[in-house]
Design brief:
Elements (H helix, E strand, L loop, with lengths): L3 H34 L2 H17 L1 H10 L2 H21 L4 H15 L2 H12 L5 H30 L1 H21 L17 H5 L1
Helix pairs in contact: 1-2, 1-5, 1-6, 1-7, 1-8, 2-5, 3-4, 3-6, 4-5, 4-6, 4-8, 7-8
């Protein structure tokens, strides 16, 4: 079994890698779409189907981590996102397919964050939950902060297709880190009625 602190550090590193890559790739996407179309409508659509969709489907994506094994959800999410970004690299010169696959990448990414957050209390003792949540959140925030800058640098250096391809690799690395964690990502379910799921949260 992976030690609790080691498990959390690997999850945090996975988040740094994939969030940084996504922020870089979506920055390159915006530049590439505007460069190809010169249209603010296309640019707004690209932003809507990536960042907008991530927020919109978050509650639904969180249910996957409650219904299925969270470790499996995270691995599948990472690998599906990797496939989408690899596809973006191959259609980078066609705005329509590029935006569509970007939309799929946002859908693919969505389940990872809620599943990883929900798994934290199962990975560490109760007295370390605050530390673990903070570390994973810091990893995400670092990625959001430095990703766009890295995306801009890579875009100027190697072009958008390579930025998308590099991000695909980052998601494979993230999945490998999750695979390396040998621990319980979820407690055994009980028949207690106090937890009613996501709809109770909405109410």
């Amino acid at each position: 079994m992976t030690q609790p602190r080691t498990a959390v550090r690997r999850l945090a590193l996975a988040r740094v890698i994939s969030v940084t890559g996504s922020a870089a790739a979506y920055t390159a996407l915006m530049f590439e779409i505007y460069d190809q179309t010169g249209s603010s409508v296309w640019l707004a659509a690209s932003l809507l189907v990536t960042e907008g969709v991530s927020g919109l489907v978050g509650p639904c994506a969180s249910m996957l981590g409650g219904r299925f094994d969270r470790r499996t959800v995270m691995i599948v999410s990472d690998l599906a996102a990797a496939a989408c970004f690899a596809g973006m690299a191959m259609v980078a010169s066609a705005p329509g397919p590029l935006v569509f696959i970007a939309f799929l990448s946002a859908l693919a990414e969505a389940p990872f964050w809620p599943a990883s957050s929900a798994a934290i209390p199962n990975l560490v003792p109760s007295e370390q939950v605050g530390w673990a949540n903070s570390l994973v959140a810091i990893g995400r925030n670092i990625g959001i902060m430095v990703g766009p800058a890295i995306g801009g640098i890579l875009l100027a250096a190697v072009g958008a297709p390579w930025v998308f391809a590099i991000n695909a690799v980052s998601f494979v690395l993230s999945a490998a880190l999750v695979v390396s964690v040998r621990a319980r990502f979820v407690d055994d379910r009980s028949d207690e009625g106090e937890h009613k799921g996501v709809w109770a949260g909405f109410r």
